[in-house]
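Dear support,

We are seeing what looks like truncated structure output for some complexes. This example has two components. We would appreciate it if you could run it in full and send us the complete token output so we can diff it against ours.
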Amino acid sequence: MRNFTFSNTTKIIFGRGAEEKVGREAAQYGRKVLLHYGGGHIVRSGLKARVEAALREAGLEIVELGGAQPNPRLSLVREGIELARREKVDLILAVGGGSVIDSAKAIGIGVPYAGDVWDFFAGKAQAEEMLPLGVILTIPAAGSESSNSSVITNEDGWLKRGYTGEVMRPAFALLNPELTYSLPPYQTACGVADMMAHIMERYFTNEPDVLFSDHLCEAALRGIIQYAPIAVREPENYAARSNIMWAGTIAHNDLLGMGRIGDWASHNIEHELSALYDIAHGAGLAIVFPAWMKYVYKHNPERFVQFAVRVFQVEQDFFNPERTILEGIRRLEEFFRSIGLPVRLKDADLPADRLEEMAAKATADGPLGSFVPLGKDDVLAIYKLCNS
Amino acid sequence: MRNFTFSNTTKIIFGRGAEEKVGREAAQYGRKVLLHYGGGHIVRSGLKARVEAALREAGLEIVELGGAQPNPRLSLVREGIELARREKVDLILAVGGGSVIDSAKAIGIGVPYAGDVWDFFAGKAQAEEMLPLGVILTIPAAGSESSNSSVITNEDGWLKRGYTGEVMRPAFALLNPELTYSLPPYQTACGVADMMAHIMERYFTNEPDVLFSDHLCEAALRGIIQYAPIAVREPENYAARSNIMWAGTIAHNDLLGMGRIGDWASHNIEHELSALYDIAHGAGLAIVFPAWMKYVYKHNPERFVQFAVRVFQVEQDFFNPERTILEGIRRLEEFFRSIGLPVRLKDADLPADRLEEMAAKATADGPLGSFVPLGKDDVLAIYKLCNS
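Here is the complete output from our reference environment:
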């Protein structure tokens, strides 16, 4: 096990009515709040009006910035930074899913920074502070509600890049599973794939002697696999929605990855897909992750056998590890399919004519991943497996 | 799943050499530190001298209070409160195991409180603040390094009582698994029983629809069961020591219990044993927990079947749940025995002549537990099972 530091200070308030506490929580951080959100869903559902009323009741003044999109855009982040500076807001409240929260994080680190906010995502600067950030989560998926990272898409070249820094953890996050009842099955499934990927990125490590957190990762995956089909089938099933929502936070609050080095190649390989085609990140991951597995499993067959046996209860063939491994990957694909996700490019109606270009872009800053470092040819081979 | 708030702000620095960072971490909280510890072990090992040098190098002034005992005593807590007030210390540094940390927590909430510190443990007052507390952990067991609770023994009547409050989380905790190499096998095993009990107290709940955290609890138990025999057999095995040390923190940092209501009757039933006979808390738990299980399993056989199958891989007898359940409890006892722990009073050379008295004391403030609320007669029956 590697040395590590774990410090996750986000206060999570979870359960029915959690969002009603937004006034009390937000008021601890100032008087003027930038309310950041995406599209019209939270307007139509009445959530926005309820949140505004709660904020006003707690004496807060509201500045509004809507329009955050999936794969959130740098241009809106820059607009938000200008707005927050001009209005001298004290804190940001993100109402939405991972895209809104990531966008809010980027605004939050951009406001106190003298340079251009893209510097952080381009690896040219480290953020030293962030405006206090509160979250009302409506989509369990990205785990951004307590994670230390943000992913932003720069329209100039459609570069999708992540930045990680401890200052980016939200101060508080309000998680009401009932707010996710209106998520359509496809979006629910995409969220499930995203959280599973967050766990699997940490699970596939070269670090020896991490069996305790191996067990935790496998358990989290099994819990998600148990509840996800129910959440997809019965959108108003509180048991499924609440367990899936909490799973999304646990999957990415760093606890499961302590003492290990994660891989994260699949995330980066997927980023090129969603940057180019605007496919949902989770759907892209359902396509990329099994392909990545098929390409790298020979590097550490034991770990893939363990995955197959412990996560998917594959009956182990002790004489033929490869058979066990491939059955594990097949069951992962089968699970993704069963909840309505694509597992090949063609399932998502994506063309396969720009694989070279994506592989070049994905590896422009060097090889991807740590489990097996992947150069351009490796990534291209994985994209081809996405098209097999 | 129940509504909950999760907020664990303790910064954990984990790994080889972690304690060397004590100066930098402590200096963030002031200039004068109360160094609290137990017996001579940290003196003989040289740890105390190294810690003092690091603190002085960081410009801190040290006030010393040794002598914390297992089942830490109220009298020393009161002495520490007087000392900390007189010397106007800014923070406390606890170097040791759960007893030292619990003692330090009690001192820390006592210093700013106008009344008597026992008020908190007697349920007469709520702590509103605690002096900042740092920890260098030498015994993985109690999880007190990031928990929100403390257990203190009042010599006046040998009352052992716990107090829980969010202000009691340490500010930072330094965990170096190498510092646990010198723990004797018996003490290592007692720590293992303690952390397993922390998980099982949360696991046995009446709350429905918590299968995600069920999986996490079972995983944590399996990880501990896998590494504990190695740590007992090979004291300098870093893999085992590091996984067990991290498990002890996870077992009690509250994450595994979110959305559930824990039971905690076994802890209270054990407290009477260790208050009266000064047996190690973990050894007492190894005796009490299986007895508690035998007494209550009929209340929710399904949960005990799940425990047996998932934690101890008992081959399920679908036609005879009781057989499966009893085999699970038998394997838990067998596991405790295998790492050198007692599972009956006589194994620990404890007499059985004051069971009535203990049952009366344990239930003096009302029934124990929430899974099955236990009155005096129930607790007496459990003590008798400890003597079966």
